[in-house]
Amino acid sequence: MLKHRTKFRVIYGDTDSMGVAYYANYLRWFEIGRTELFRFLGLPYTEIEKKGYFLPVSETHCKFKTFARYDDVMTIETSHDETIKAGLKFNYLIFKDDENDIFANGYTRHAFLDSTGKLVRTPKFIREFIAEKIGER
Amino acid sequence: MLKHRTKFRVIYGDTDSMGVAYYANYLRWFEIGRTELFRFLGLPYTEIEKKGYFLPVSETHCKFKTFARYDDVMTIETSHDETIKAGLKFNYLIFKDDENDIFANGYTRHAFLDSTGKLVRTPKFIREFIAEKIGER
Amino acid sequence: MLKHRTKFRVIYGDTDSMGVAYYANYLRWFEIGRTELFRFLGLPYTEIEKKGYFLPVSETHCKFKTFARYDDVMTIETSHDETIKAGLKFNYLIFKDDENDIFANGYTRHAFLDSTGKLVRTPKFIREFIAEKIGER
Amino acid sequence: MLKHRTKFRVIYGDTDSMGVAYYANYLRWFEIGRTELFRFLGLPYTEIEKKGYFLPVSETHCKFKTFARYDDVMTIETSHDETIKAGLKFNYLIFKDDENDIFANGYTRHAFLDSTGKLVRTPKFIREFIAEKIGER
């Protein structure tokens, strides 16, 4: 499985007056997770856009388990879901110190658009790139 | 069904460099939707907190259908899901001019916490309030 | 003086764990203020972009007087600063119930860019539009 | 001068449909800068709150020089302004690769509040801490 972990810290601007991280920010953190997975694999998302493709989110889901608070250092583990053939799907796990102390988990699904905004099949270079990376494991 | 519609406008700060509304902002708009539903029904969320309860989001889901763009006026229709007994669930539909032109739909689920942060059953005054409001329809 | 007032409500997502509105959000509200001033005057910002100009913020300043809290209804009064000839400047006053209860005041300065991103003088149609609107007062 | 540099990366959620980083986000980055300066000096902001003090922003100013774009890695250099005796002031410089390629500069001023929300003089432990740190240089 293609998987990567990255860390970040909750800032004041991420929290709300309940004293915890505001729920919409988890989707920002999902973005950080998948961006860093792409970069780690050797295909930064900026390269995908340079080739004329966009990868907007078509669906997202998130379960919130434990509250994250100001200044918490979080790990986001992003993994590529190989079972999905149409577009891409990423699964996310956000935790504090270890996987037993989970803040949230969720997923995003993505469709490919070409530069005119038209929905297209997953581009060949992406399918080949993923197949190659999975083969390397 | 307890249901309410409210409108808002997409600002520059809501968009991203793909030229469309950034996906995390839909969760902010879901918040606006459920807040205004509570207020419309006669129980502002601030009243719930004054009684010593918090209603954090335990789960959210959103499907993105059409891109929203800068300065679009959107309607969010929030409805209370009566089939859920543990906590609360709200369903959302975000559309532009009519329900045939849908930007997104989704839901949030909420658990009740007391003032010490402990998970509690849906408070009696909430259950009675909802039963009464549903009875009025 | 070209001036306009608009209202908005502080949501949970605008607050932070100090229990008050997070300071960066005031710049979002400044945006709402100047956008609605343009619209009120009859020249929506989208029209300016359609004519091939962009109006990014080159400078901003804000003083925070009183804390805004969740669910507060705020008024933002935006006024065009006629004394500035290079680009545009807007002054903002954000208050709760009347001008004696001020949350914040500040300003933004803006430069004009053409569609290639080059800095240009304030376009003639803008200068004429402002002169005409000021003349009407 | 007490000074510290930290790096971060612009995400999609930070950009707007002009294709550049939205101006309000610079205030989030100022927060990151001063938080990491405090931590670097050995007094994390969480410690200040544990001692019963809050340090809200009373004023901010920012000049925007060059546009930051998606995936740019930015350095924020935060320095403590020793000339200010009432409260604290921090100066910020945000740049890409070197200080000749500046995105923005600005400052924030901060007042001290005690745990009841009352405005107080800069606490003795803060004044001593800063004097000691300046002396070490």
- Chains forming the largest contact: A-B, 19 and 19 residues
Q: Per CATH, what is the topology of chain A?
A: Thiol Ester Dehydrase, Chain A
| Derived structural class of chain A | alpha+beta
Mind telling me which CATH architecture of chain A this is? Answer: Roll
Q: From the alpha-carbon coordinates, what is the Rg of chain A to the nearest angstrom?
A: 16 Å
Strand and helix order of chain A: EHHEEEEEEEH
Helix content of chain A: 25-40%
- Determine the mean pLDDT of chain A: 95
Neighbour order of strands in the largest sheet of chain A: 1-4-5-6-3
State the separation between the terminal residues of chain A, measured CA to CA: 8 Å
Indicate the proportion of strand residues of chain A.
25-35%
CATH evolutionary superfamily of chain A: Hotdog Thioesterase
Continuous helix count of chain A: 3
Q: What do these coordinates show?
A:
4 copies of one chain form a homotetramer. Chain A is α+β, with helices and mostly antiparallel strands and 137 residues long. Chain A has one domain (3-136): Thiol Ester Dehydrase, Chain A, CATH 3.10.129. Helix content of chain A is 26%, strand content 34%. Chain A has 3 helices and 8 strands; from the N terminus they run βααβββββββα. Chain A has helices spanning 25-41, 45-50, 124-136, and strands at 3-9, 53-54, 57-64, 73-80, 88-95, 102-110, 112-114, 119-120. The N and C termini of chain A lie close together (8 Å). Chains in contact: A-B, A-C, A-D, B-C, B-D, C-D. The interface between A and B is medium-sized, with 19 and 19 residues. β3 (57-64) of chain C pairs antiparallel with β3 (57-64) of chain D.
